[in-house]
């Protein structure tokens, strides 16, 4: 089984379309989305339509839950709250209803999927080894997939803690991770629509469960076009600027 894993689309339609084209070329069996389909970006309804049509498992992220009213926007940064209010007003009713139907965590036979982490599927940022160890300690499957930080990551621990420390970290374009048995792993595909690792290209992850390889991919897209759409929508200009840096 070959699975494409995407996360944190953030209403960036041009990035999403570039990733979906790359996914189609790989002829995957399934597509999983780890949440934050909307928020920050200018095309929330069309991104919901695309993810709903193409994903076998879609999760809700904190931005999706903020837009549907399930989370209080007082817990968001000022910029994120402005974008969430803009998104709630811009979304068509079908897209809003679809977002409201999603959960922030799901288990499959192959993996545990969480928007943020197993112990807090909505808010916890897993960025370093300590948080990865804690997350894997609460995991219900040997393979955990998370989004939320917008940084592609791969951490691995032995099945028993006494067999060694956690290893891994950033997973830039081209990183390939062996998924052989005997370890617990936490993987973050990075962000489709707002990468924060210094690489502005859209990120996604190819999980090949037959070959037992996880492959971190990046796809260029028309960043300037999304930036222009953000400005035209009246969203904060800083949300356009950061896409050029991938930060
Ligand atoms: Zn996000």
Short key terms for the protein model shown above:
binds zinc ion; 6-stranded mixed β-sheet; 247 residues; alpha/beta; single chain; 12 strands; Purple Acid Phosphatase, chain A, domain 2
Description:
- The two termini are 33 Å apart.
- The protein is built from 8 helices and 12 strands.
- β11 and β12 form a beta hairpin.
- It has 247 residues and is of the alpha/beta class.
- It is 33% helix and 22% strand.
- The chain has a 6-stranded mixed β-sheet with strand order 3-2-1-11-12-9. The chain has a 6-stranded mixed β-sheet with strand order 4-5-6-10-7-8, covered by helices on one side.
- The site of zinc ion (ZN) has 7 residues, from loops.
- The site of zinc ion has 7 residues, from loops.
How is the secondary structure organized here?
Elements: E1 2-6, H1 13-25, E2 30-33, H2 44-54, E3 57-58, H3 62-68, H4 78-90, H5 93-100, E4 105-107, E5 112-114, H6 129-137, E6 143-146, E7 153-158, E8 167-170, E9 176-178, E10 183-188, E11 202-208, E12 213-219, H7 223-233, H8 237-245
Parallel strand pairs: 1-2, 2-3, 5-6, 6-10
Antiparallel strand pairs: 1-11, 4-5, 7-8, 7-10, 9-12, 11-12
Helix pairs in contact: 1-2, 2-5, 3-4, 3-5, 7-8
The chain binds zinc ion.
CATH architecture: 4-Layer Sandwich
How would you classify the helix and strand content by structural class? alpha/beta
Taking pLDDT < 50 over at least 5 consecutive residues as the criterion, the unreliable ranges are none
Bound molecules: zinc ion
Largest sheet: 6 strands, mixed
Q: What share of residues are in beta strands?
A: 15-25%
In total, the number of domains comes to 1
Overall 3D form: globular
Examine the coordinates and then state which fold CATH places here, giving the name of the CATH topology: Purple Acid Phosphatase, chain A, domain 2
Output the CATH homologous superfamily: Metallo-dependent phosphatases
Strand numbers in spatial order across the main sheet: 3-2-1-11-12-9
For the record, the CATH class is Alpha Beta
If you compute it from the alpha carbons, what radius of gyration comes out, rounded to the nearest whole angstrom? 17 Å
Mean of all residue-level pLDDT scores = 95
Number of strands: 12
- How do the helices and strands follow one another from N- to C-terminus? EHEHEHHHEEHEEEEEEEHH
Helix fraction by DSSP (H/I, runs of at least 4)? 25-40%
Separation of termini?
Answer: 33 Å
